[in-house]
What does this fold into?
Amino acid sequence: MPLTHILALSVILFGLGAAGFIIRRNIITIFMCIELMLNAVNLAFIGFSRYLGNLDGQIYVFFVIVVAAAEAAVGLAIIIAIQRNRETLTIDEIDSMKM
Amino acid sequence: MAPLFYIFAAVAILAALSVVLQRTPVYSALSLIVVLCALAVVYLLLGAEFMAVVQVIVYAGAIMVLFVLVIMLLNARRESPVNRSQMARRLGVPLLAVFMAEILFAVWGHFSNAPIPAAEFHAGPAAVGEVLFRSYVLPFEVTSILILVAVLGAVVLAKKEI
Amino acid sequence: MATSSSPMLLVLMILLRVVIVLVVLLTTIAYAVWLERKVVAHIQSRWGPYLVGPHGLLQPVADALKFLFKEDILPREVDRVVYYLAPFIAFTMAFASIAVIPFGESITIRGETIPFEIANLNVGVLFILAVTSLGVYGIALAGWSSNSKFPLFGGLRSSAQMISYELSLGLAVVGVVLIAGTLSLREIVEQQRGLFNIVKQPLGFLLYFTAAIAETNRAPFDLPEAESELVGGFHTEYSSFKFAMFFMAEYANIVTVSCLATLLFFGGWLGPVFGPPLLRALLPLLWFSLKVFCFLFAYIWIRGTLPRFRYDQLMGFGWRVLFPLALGNVLVTSLVVAWQAS
It folds into this structure.
C-alpha cells in the first residue's frame, strides 16, 4: 500500500474527528472525537516510520498513546466534576465560568 | 496484504463516521473501539507489531474502558437537538473538508506512489525497546512523572470532598 | 509453518487446527463445569451430579440441552444492540486468546512440520493480555445494557476489579519475560528445558495466580457475581443461551489462564519423553493436559474452600498489596538479570 493511501486514510480520520468535534454537543463525544484525531496522527506516524525505515515514528506513537491516556484520565475526571456541579453534559449549557 | 489494508481502512472510516454521527454516547464509544482495533490491524500490516498490540492493550483496552465506565456512571443520554445557532456546523464542516483536501493534495505529490518496500522491517518489542531506552530514555522518564501527575489530578478532581 | 506447500493447503491446515482446538476447548469447558460441581460437592460432603449418566458424566450434555431449550427472555427496557452484543464480546474474547497457546512439540510428517498451535506470534504474551483487556467490555456492557440497578453495580464492580488486577497480571508476566528475553510463548517454554520458571520466579507465580483468579472473577474474588450479594451481578437479566455464553466465556478464561500459567511457569509440555515416534508426539500433549488439569483443580479447590472477599477488601488488596509486590518483583528480577548479564 503506497504511503499516500495511508496518509489519505489518516487525513480522512482526522477530518472526521475534527468534524465531530465541531458538530457534537455532548462533552464525552467531543472527547472521543479528540481521541479519533490523535489516532489519525498515530497512523500517519507509523506510516512514515515504515516508509523511512526508521523506528522514531513508533516511539512518537508510544508517547502519544501515553499522553492520551493521561489526558483521558484527567479530562474524564473534569467531566465528572462538571456533571456533579452543573447536572449537564451539553457544552451549550456549560458556557459560563460562574455557575 | 494490500487488499486487507483497504478492507480495514474502510472499516475504520465507517466506524469513525459512526463515532461522529451516533446519538447515543455508548454507541459512539463502541464505534471508537472498532476504529482503534481496525487501526491496530493496519499497524500490524505496516509491520509495527509492538505498536499494534500496545494500541489494543492501552488504548482500546484501558482508555476506552475508562470512557465506557464514565459514560455508564454519568448516565449520558441521547443528545436532543436544540435551536442554537447552527453557524459553526454549516460553515465549519465544509471549510474543514476543504482544509483536509488541501492538506492531502499538498502532500500527495511529494511521496512516490510506489508501494512501501516490503523489506525486512524489524519493529518488534526488542527493536522498539532498544530505541526507546537508549535514545529516548529522558522523555520516557518524563512521561512516567506525567502519568503520576495525571493520576493525582484525576483522584483529586473526582473526589466528592477534598 | 511449511513454506513449500500451496496456500490452499496452508489455509486448510490452519482451519483444521482451529476446529480441533475449538472442539477440545468446548469439551474441556463442559467437563470443567462437571468437575467443578463434583469437586465442590465432595468438599462439601455431598455427591454432586450423580444421576445423569455414570457419576453424572452426561450432566454437561443435559445442561447444554437445557440452555438451548430455555425460553429466551428479552426484558423490555434493555438497550437491544448492546444487550445482544455483550455476551458475544465476552465469548469471542475468551475463545480468541486460545489461538496463540502452543500445546506441544511440533511434529514432522513427511517433511511437513505441523505445529501444535493455531498461530505462533512473536508477541504471543502481549496478544493474550490484549484480548483479556478487551474481555472487560463484555461484562461492563452487559451491566449497562440491562438497565437495572443490580446488573449495573455488578458490571461496574466487575470491570473495575478486572482492570485493576490486569496490572498485576501483566507485571507478573513481565518477570518471566525478563528472564526469557522473548515474548513468544513457544520460546519461553523452550527456554525452560533445564529448569522450570517456577524456581526462578516463585513470587511471580503467586502474583500471577492470584491476579488470574481475580481477573476471571472467581472465588474468593467473585463478589460481582455472587448470588447473595448482587442477585446475579452483571448477568442477572440474561437467560438461556446468552447466559450460557457468559458461563462458557468464564470457563474458557479459566482454561486460558491455566494454560498460560503452565506455559510461563511450569514448562508447558516439557516432561519425560520416551518411546516410539507416535508416543513422542503425544506425550508432550499429555504432560500439558495434566498440568492444566492440576491448575483447574486448584481453581476449583480454592473456590470450594475460601470465603469471599468484600469489595473494598478486594480492591485494596489489588492496589495496595499485589501491585507493589508485582512492581518489586519486576525490579528485583531486572536487577538480577542485569547483574547476570554483566
Observations:
- The two ends of chain C are 36 Å apart (CA to CA).
- The first strand of chain C starts at residue 107 and ends at 109.
- The first helix of chain C runs from residue 7 to 43.
